[in-house]
Amino acid sequence: MLELFRAFSLRCVQIEEAIRLGDDQRVTALDRHVEPLVEAILACRAVNLLEVYMQLQFVSHLISQDADDSASVTEHTSVLSYLLDSYFGAHGPDWRVPSPQDVRIEPPPAYVPDTDNGQFLNAVILESLPDRVAVLTRDYRYLYSNPANSAHLNRKPMELIGRHLSEFIGEERFAECAKHKLDACFAGDQIDYSYERSDGSGGSRQVRCRMSPLRDAGGTVIGAVLVMEDLDRLSQAA
Predict the structure, then answer these.
(1) Residue 3 belongs to a domain
(2) Which end of the chain has the lower number of beta carbons within 10 A, N or C?
(3) Where in this chain does the record put each PAC domain (predicted)?
(4) Is pLDDT above 90 for 27?
């Protein structure tokens, strides 16, 4: 599924560039490939909770993008309902019918006690955090970026999916610093370090970066969760 998200993100970037250049013919040619990609993403069966989240977030993105087109919103909402039923419908009661207190609801098969089970991706929490949060796959590509991190990189969240980290921090910094820390995280280590970054006005700011292994329901590390905290902002607030 990640390859499909990557292809969609690349196509969107290409279309935006063609629009910027005023190349209407290229825009039309590229646009013909968008709908098949959308259909492929929606038809793909997620194999873990992370992919479920990304697929549902993608539909939410489509609904937001087509908010002025009621027919499209209705269609996307139907797809969202289908996906929710497909992934979770068999494991809980209908939301319209109160569940009897004495009926035990079995958790989904992917649920594993005492593990995170994807709760770190609670959109309500992550998308309101002032800290920058990102999820990287084991090939160092973005799988998720919260609004704070996306704004820092001057990108929309969907534009980051599938993009390599080195595109944004540079090949040198990636090779000399980020890669070996991420590799250690992929090996199961918790990484916590601080670094300086430019504030864009000739000064610098201290940033704390924490990396945590992202595991699937079976315990296999499938990526890393990164939280970047602006230490100067915290000290100023104090």
Answers:
(1) no
(2) C
(3) 189-238
(4) no
At residue 9, does pLDDT exceed 60? yes
Domain containing residue 172: CATH number: 3.30.450.20
> What Å distances lie between residue 125 and 6, 92, 119, 190, CA to CA?
25, 23, 10, 21
Residue 187 is part of which domain span? 117-238
pLDDT at position 181: 95
Q: How far apart are CA 220 and CA 146, in angstroms?
A: 24
Distance of CA 20 to CAs 15, 16, 17, 167, 233, Å? 9, 6, 5, 21, 35
Residue type present at position 47: V
Q: What H or E segment, with its residue span, contains residue 206?
A: strand 204-215
Query: What band does 74 get if pLDDT is binned at 50, 70 and 90?
Result: confident
The candidate with the shortest Cα–Cα distance to 129, out of 34, 67, 210, is: 210
Q: What H or E segment, with its residue span, contains residue 210?
A: strand 204-215
Instruction: With respect to residue 210, please indicate whether it lies within any of the assigned structural domains.
Output: yes
The DSSP H or E segment spanning 161 is none
Is 156 part of any domain?
yes
Backbone angles phi, psi at 215, to 5 degrees: -115, 150
Scan for tokens 């209705």, then name that residue. Answer: 74
Select from 132, 160, 166, 165 the least CA-distant residue to 146.
132
